[in-house]
Design brief:
- The protein starts with a helix and ends in a 19-residue tail after the last helix.
- 0% of the residues are buried.
- With 101 residues, it is mainly α.
- The protein has two domains: 30 residues; 59 residues, no CATH class.
């Protein structure tokens, strides 16, 4: 038995090395399965990043409307939404006094 192992030592060692490298190719932190998992995670993070960037742009736009140049229409919209003044699809009549004193 020992003679057979010594005779096929190169074959035995090379077989174990191939199995070892194949196993490490598929699994582990740098393996193929981990690569696909990290690639999927990267796509999810990129999608989340675009959502967050869009939220930031929206908030920047809303913030710019509330800066030095006040947009009265936007403020009115905020008051109606937050303070529940008025209702949806309501008609607003503005009465002006055209008579001069």
């Amino acid at each position: 038995m020992l003679k057979k192992i010594k005779k096929n030592y190169f074959l035995l060692v090379s077989t174990f090395l191939v199995i070892y490298f194949f196993f490490n190719l598929l699994s582990g932190q740098r393996g193929l399965l981990s690569y696909f998992d990290k690639k999927q995670h990267l796509k999810e993070l990129q999608m989340e990043e675009t959502l967050i960037i869009n939220k930031i742009r929206d908030l920047d736009f809303k913030n710019s409307l509330l800066s030095d140049n006040l947009d009265l229409d936007y403020i009115e919209t905020l008051i109606r939404e937050r303070l529940l003044f008025g209702k949806e699809n309501e008609k607003i009549y503005i009465i002006t006094n055209d008579t001069k004193n």
